[in-house]
C-alpha cells in the first residue's frame, strides 16, 4: 500500500514539474521582421509621411462664407450660411434665384458701392472713410407678387447684399429705374434697409 501511495505521489509531482517548465519561445526570423516594415521606413520617415498626410490639399478651392436670405413657405424671412467659391453680386443673385427670391433669368446690370471703406484685411486705418456705405443694385427684373410677399422678397435681397458687402443700406433699381411695382413706387431717396426680423435655419 505504501508503494502505491509513493508511486501516485511521484506521478503527481512529475506532472506538476512538467507544467511549471518554461515553454521555449522560437526566435523571430529576420524574414518576419522584414514583413512588418516592407518599405524599410525609419520612425523619422513615418512621422514625416503622417505629417504630410495631415496637410490641407493645396489644390482645394478656398471657400468664402456667405449669408443668404430667403422667404420660407410661411412667408417668414430666413437666413442660412453657405460656402461659395467666389462671393460676387452674380453668385449672390444666383443663390437668391435658387431659393425662389428672384425669377430664373434675372441678371445683374450693375452693382456698386459708394461711401467709406470698412476696416479689414488689406485696408489700412487711413483708408477707412466716413459716411454710410451705400450699395446700388440694378437688376433686369423683379417678381410680380402681392404686397406682403413683395416686402419680404425685398428684405431678402437687401439683407443678403447688406450683410455680405457690409453696407448700411441698398438702392434697388430695375433696368436703371427706381424700383416700381403694383404695390409701391420708390423715389430717388428711397433705399432698402436691413431687416432684423428673420430666423436662422442653418
Number of helices: 5
- According to DSSP, the number of beta strands is 7
Classify the secondary structure makeup into a structural class. Answer: alpha/beta
End-to-end distance: 91 Å
What percent strand? Answer: 15-25%
Which bin fits the share of residues in helices?
25-40%
Mean pLDDT equals: 81
Which outline best applies? elongated
The SSE order reads HHHEEHEEHEEE
Characterize the biggest β-sheet.
4 strands, mixed
Task: Walk across the major sheet and give the strand order.
Answer: 3-4-5-6
Unreliable residue stretches: 120-125
Computed over alpha carbons, the radius of gyration is 37 Å
List keywords for this structure.
7 strands, 5 helices, 3-stranded mixed β-sheet, elongated, alpha/beta, 202 residues
Written overview of the protein:
- The chain has 202 residues and is α/β, with parallel strands linked by helices.
- 33% of the residues lie in helices and 19% in strands.
- It has helices at residues 2-20, 30-36, 43-54, 89-98, 147-165; strands spanning 64-71, 77-84, 108-114, 134-139, 169-174, 177-178, 199-200.
- The chain has a four-stranded mixed β-sheet. Strands 1-2-7 form a three-stranded mixed β-sheet.
- Helix 4 runs antiparallel to helix 5.
- The protein is elongated and about 80 Å long.
- Mean pLDDT is 81; it is low at 120-125.
What is shown here, in short?
The protein has 202 residues and is of the alpha/beta class. The protein is built from five helices and seven strands; from the N terminus they run H-H-H-E-E-H-E-E-H-E-E-E. Helix 4 (89-98) runs antiparallel to helix 5 (147-165).
